[in-house]
């Protein structure tokens, strides 16, 4: 086993780290204060990031993307965790994997412009009545002579305001779910309110309403009835990269700040880092982050080997999200009153961390998946020689 990073990987990480520090970090405060990112500033970071060649890095190079392996991608995603969601979306893009199902005319209309950053898409699965139970959706599409007619609604759709089209899951039969590419501006498609959240300031989360929206046959992504599989396949990768790896990055970032503070802040005539109870918070954080990081890398490696990483990703989702929660909680404690005060970003990191245990499948749902796999296949499944 060789755990060493190649020179190319080290260079890639340094490039992303430098870009985030120089171009994105300075915008964080403003986004937090205003609650949005200015369009002109979004364009600047988008253009600069594209020059680095990492836009749409998850998409194969032959389709115009970055062509990164799963391991290389998560090495970048960990760095992305060092800044806020909306800045990463605008700079590096958020090209959801189901779009790779585009064929024929769909490629020029939806896939290529998205990979090139000329169009943006969001994924719309959740409804007010169907969250964890993603198969319990009510949105449905009925076949007509000219295509489909879409009816229903979605909520909590991240990045909806910036998106030009949506990957929408809809029932196309009693049990069948299909996925459609639904352009903004179609008749009967209206955008509802921006649902204000505890954290992730600057990223809009929208309601979508479909009232007899006419869809052409071309709007169907992948095969009819395969939408649930498509969505779940895509979310698997999203969970590993955008939740697992970013949670590790966020926790590492917070730990760096916690460590600096423990070394600087003095009480009772000595550094607070000299107190064993503070040391324990640092030590537990380092241990847990390190474990989460290796779980992320291992699951990514499995993907690159063509192995089934679903249960490993579920474990990553739970462990990385919960590690982040514990680390930011300790950070508030180590910073004392300054951890709670808005003069420092610690309280923001605390708020932003909470959603990691909820979106892309809650901790409870993933624990259920893990337990079912263990019970069916045996605990030895996770030993390395199996
Ligand atoms: C900020 C944010 C961004 C989001 N972005 C998107 C997006 O871009 N696109 C999209 O489609 N969705 C998005 N979502 C939706 C998100 O994925 C769901 O909120 C999540 O899947 C949970 O669904 P729910 O909120 O309906 O909770 P519910 O499913 O109602 O769950 C409520 C509670 O019940 C528990 N529970 C439910 N079922 C079980 C079970 N079988 N066993 C044990 N416990 C259970 C849950 O774990 C949870 O604790 C976003 C949500 C938020 C808050």
UniProtKB/TrEMBL annotation:
Domain (Acyl-CoA dehydrogenase/oxidase N-terminal) ranges: 6-117
Flavoprotein among keywords: yes
Any GO CC annotation of this UniProt entry: cytoplasm
GO MF annotation: an example: flavin adenine dinucleotide binding
GO biological process terms on file: fatty acid beta-oxidation using acyl-CoA dehydrogenase
Domain Acyl-CoA dehydrogenase/oxidase C-terminal positions: 225-374
Acyl-CoA oxidase/dehydrogenase middle domain span: 122-213
Classification via InterPro entries: Acyl-CoA_dehydrogenase (IPR050741), Acyl-CoA_DH_CS (IPR006089), Acyl-CoA_Oxase/DH_mid-dom (IPR006091), Acyl-CoA_Oxase/DH_mid-dom_sf (IPR046373), AcylCo_DH-like_C (IPR036250), AcylCo_DH/oxidase_C (IPR009075), AcylCoA_DH/ox_N (IPR013786), AcylCoA_DH/ox_N_sf (IPR037069)
Co-factor requirement: FAD
The keyword Transcription regulation is annotated on this UniProt entry: no
Keyword annotations from UniProtKB, A to Z: FAD, Flavoprotein, Oxidoreductase
A matching Pfam family: Acyl-CoA_dh_M
PANTHER family per the UniProt record, alphabetical: MEDIUM-CHAIN SPECIFIC ACYL-COA DEHYDROGENASE, MITOCHONDRIAL (PTHR48083:SF2), MEDIUM-CHAIN SPECIFIC ACYL-COA DEHYDROGENASE, MITOCHONDRIAL-RELATED (PTHR48083)
Family in the record: Belongs to the acyl-CoA dehydrogenase family.
The protein, known as: Medium-chain specific acyl-CoA dehydrogenase, mitochondrial
